[in-house]
Design brief:
alpha+beta, single chain, 3 helices, about 110 residues
Length: about 110
């Protein structure tokens, strides 16, 4: 079960205060069927910790990879995931639709 947004932000702040590198991913836009609404968040640390959810699992590996890259470069990213309903199961987006996720490093 995903954690409420407040818990994700509190955990991210705790991890950052403890000296961890942290990136925050936020769903900025959805179209069609989407497992998580806009505003859903996931925090990722350089050491591999994660909290929250941006997709119910179907794209979170790719988002976590982008978060690690963002922590290394310091450059935020806007990720765009989408697939036709015909190919949805094949690529792991059983929901179909589109999801945009903004990934930013926490300073």
């Amino acid at each position: 079960m995903p954690q409420p947004v407040e818990d994700v932000l509190a955990l991210a702040a705790q991890w950052r205060a403890a000296g961890e590198q942290v990136a925050l991913a936020t769903v900025t836009e959805t179209w069609g069927s989407s497992p998580r609404p806009a505003g859903s968040q996931m925090a990722v640390t350089a050491s591999g910790r994660m909290a929250g959810s941006v997709s119910g699992g179907c794209i979170e590996g790719a988002v976590a990879d982008a978060a690690r890259q963002t922590m290394q470069t310091g450059a935020p990213q806007l990720l765009d995931f989408g697939v036709s309903n015909e190919r949805a199961w094949e690529v792991g987006l059983a929901c179909g639709g589109k999801v945009k996720v903004f990934v930013e490093p926490l300073a």
